[in-house]
């Protein structure tokens, strides 16, 4: 990482730490949801950008993490234990379902992951121990080492810490030796396999890791909201995560964060418009689907690499400034060539 990149990361981190202190309570709530979405988007960005796999069911792993944390807490176990179990349960579930699913490619895998979420939503909504369609209410607040996370600002910093941890883990993986294999896998599976890269194992590992990130975000969400239900993790949420990655730039950490920021703020704007007086009850969902589809089309047409990679490419193509005319005029004239005497 260059000095300029380190300075940019430090500046963004400083702003992220100050922002919760300057916002109102309702705005901090949006900020927390933004950070949790960015946590999920980073894992999905790695899955799409390096493993070349598209998941339309990423919210199902967020739901697994949320229900794991909630069930652990409501049955009297320490809440910090539920937070640790949330990403592990989501990663384990992804490792199991990934064995048959990752044999598929392209749109087949996308529809298969979507089917997994639909099945999971149906199963969770029919079980008594999950609370059925009503869900689990009264989830206790998170307590770690005697400290209870009871305010909006405390959860903002918790979500920010989770995002930072996920970003560090992702960067370490990408820059390591397995990361070079992942980059080769993103370029060509055949070439990567011929170079000795275990393609199936790497796909499985990235799929499970991205699910673990989603489970961590789901666990924090359960403690923050204090309530989980099948309706908290709809199919639209999975589509939202994909739009975040596509708009921001797949295969990049900054792109995932930028996409999550843009889409979360846009969703809040659409919800505000859709819930105004005179609007039908289905207006927020209809507006969301329409805008997501429009954004995907525009991103594919004009920014196929995403916001962040396109901005970096534009910066790198800046022309080198030519010397000023005055600089050439100030130079002394070259001496005239001398003729040899016979």
UniProtKB/TrEMBL annotation:
<feature type="transmembrane region" description="Helical">
    <location>
        <begin position="80"/>
        <end position="102"/>
    </location>
</feature>
<dbReference type="Pfam" id="PF02653">
    <property type="entry name" value="BPD_transp_2"/>
</dbReference>
<feature type="transmembrane region" description="Helical">
    <location>
        <begin position="286"/>
        <end position="308"/>
    </location>
</feature>
<feature type="transmembrane region" description="Helical">
    <location>
        <begin position="155"/>
        <end position="174"/>
    </location>
</feature>
<feature type="transmembrane region" description="Helical">
    <location>
        <begin position="30"/>
        <end position="49"/>
    </location>
</feature>
<dbReference type="InterPro" id="IPR043428">
    <property type="entry name" value="LivM-like"/>
</dbReference>
<feature type="region of interest" description="Disordered">
    <location>
        <begin position="318"/>
        <end position="342"/>
    </location>
</feature>
<keyword id="KW-1003">Cell membrane</keyword>
<keyword id="KW-1133">Transmembrane helix</keyword>
<feature type="transmembrane region" description="Helical">
    <location>
        <begin position="207"/>
        <end position="229"/>
    </location>
</feature>
<feature type="compositionally biased region" description="Basic and acidic residues">
    <location>
        <begin position="318"/>
        <end position="332"/>
    </location>
</feature>
<keyword id="KW-0812">Transmembrane</keyword>
<feature type="transmembrane region" description="Helical">
    <location>
        <begin position="7"/>
        <end position="24"/>
    </location>
</feature>
<dbReference type="InterPro" id="IPR001851">
    <property type="entry name" value="ABC_transp_permease"/>
</dbReference>
<feature type="transmembrane region" description="Helical">
    <location>
        <begin position="241"/>
        <end position="266"/>
    </location>
</feature>
<protein>
    <submittedName>
        <fullName>Branched-chain amino acid ABC transporter permease</fullName>
    </submittedName>
</protein>
<keyword id="KW-0472">Membrane</keyword>
